Amino acid sequence: MPTSDKLDRTEQLRAIVREHFADVWRFLRRLGFERDVADDAAQDLFFVALRRMDAITPGCERAFLFGAALRIAARLKRKDARELPVERAIEEDVPDVLSATLEQRLDEERARQLLYRLLSELEERFRVVFVMYELEGMTMLEISELLEIPPGTVASRLRSARDDFQARLARHRARHEEST
Amino acid sequence: MKGPSRLIHEDPDFARLVAASTREEPSSDQIAKALSTASSAAVASRWSLAWGSGLGRQLTIGLAAIGLATVIGVATTRGGEASKEAGATAHVISAPLAPAAAEAVREAPLQEMAPTVSVDALADAPLADRTAPKPAAARTAASAVSKETPSGGAPAATSLQPSSSRGTFSEELALVSAARAALENGDAAACLRAVDGYDGRFRSGTFAQEMSVMRIEALAASGEQSRARTLAEHFLEANPKSPYAGRVRSLSERFPN
Question: Which of A155, B30, B103, B254 could be stapled to B26 by a disulfide with Cβ–Cβ 3.0 to 4.6 Å?
């Protein structure tokens, strides 16, 4: 293969990393993994996935990578690699960030901490659908295909997830209002 | 199938939380590692495909993939440690590929994939096999790589540019690491020296984007916000879809007008 082809191939794969690595890593974070776990999982995932990119239909890279991320997440969870234990998260007093409009500068780390805590409290099957729809912006059809579950199941899980999440967010707001 | 209106459009608080999450990014070191993985994968893929077109035998290709993956060195893959074997044409991949990742990728929806070479075999290779040279496989792959690289000395895995070698790639990564460490230690001057050194030697190098972002961060940290803003604008203009675009935009918003 000519050198130019080799360079093209290298650039293609590097472009995939540039376009998708951060998204996949963030997806793993939202599914409940600490930064270091997401780091390792994303690296391992790309190590293998990039060697299979020849087989992926152009335009389907994101779905392929997210599907792989879901599977690696499931395996990691079975190995108790979750980095945000729900019990601890529930007990932690996450500082208020929702009424922080007085501050011009958003405390992003605390906002993330609250978001990830609320997500971690959702039932697993609901959390996955909720993250994919509400945070990753996927369509119901995409979620259905990726999870290989019927569209109706996606819709019902999303409804339950939204109800649960919104209730928890409302409780957080109420607790903060009581304390201030 | 149309879903409900997204919560971020209905609840400003939720939108703020999501925005904070969206602005969280992996470290530049992690992206650098993945980029080096991409470079090695390009070569692994190239070699596998070459065998595939010639022989079409999954088993043979799988064995070739195992051998190649086991021994072809990537100077910076997972840990950045380069093999020091003098004169060797094959080097050990140090990537600790978790079995979970291999399985996760292997189980990705098959309908999206065309028939391919058996890179799964690579994924299935036990960790121990990737962290220690296997003489027989090493000889096979070394011989194969030698045919691919006229020089016979530089592993193809690191041939990012015609003139690059494993050594220069390691140097690139060393400068990236030095710049990042200096930035994290609050030593903007040292960071800028590392970035200058990188630009002087590898202006269009593997980590050009990463270094550009660090230059902006270092300039901002050292009070040169006007220069930082100008560079940020240039960066966003040239790389609007870069994974660093969000970070650069975020930095820019903090610069005084």
Answer: B30
Angle between helices A151-179 and B12-22 (to 10 degrees): 100
Pick the CATH number of B165-254 from 1.10.1660, 1.25.40, 1.10.238, 1.10.357: 1.25.40
Cα distance between residue B206 and residue B37, in whole Å: 12
Residue A122 CA to residue A68 CA, distance in Å, equals: 22
Q: Which residue of A has its CA nearest to B158?
A: A10
pLDDT tens per residue, range B201-248: 887 777 788 889 889 989 988 888 889 999 999 999 988 877 677 778
Q: Where in chain B is the domain with CATH 1.25.40?
A: 165-254
Search chain A and give the residue with CA nearest B39.
A10
Instruction: Show which of residues 103-132 on chain B sit within 8 Å of chain A, judged by CB atoms.
Output: 103-109, 112-117, 119, 122-123
pLDDT, one tens digit per residue, over B154-184 is 333 333 333 344 456 667 778 888 888 888 7
The two structure tokens encoding residue A23 = 């998204």
CATH 1.20.120 fits A1-83, yes or no: no
Q: Shortest CB distance from B241 goes to which of A19, A41, A47?
A: A19
Query: Considering the entire predicted model, what is its pTM?
Result: 0.56
| Residue boundaries of the structural domains of chain A | 1-83, 91-180
Give domain A91-180's CATH architecture: Orthogonal Bundle (1.10)
Go through chain A and tell me how many residues it has.
Answer: 180
Residues B214, B230: contact at Cβ < 8 Å? Answer: no
Residue B118 corresponds to which tokens in the numbers above?
A: 């058996």
Residues 76-105 of A with CB under 8 A from B: 76, 79, 97-98
Contacts of A43 in chain B (CB under 8 A): 30, 33-34, 37, 78, 95
Express each pLDDT in B53-111 by its tens digit. Answer: 443 333 333 333 333 333 333 333 333 333 333 333 333 333 444 455 666 665 554 33
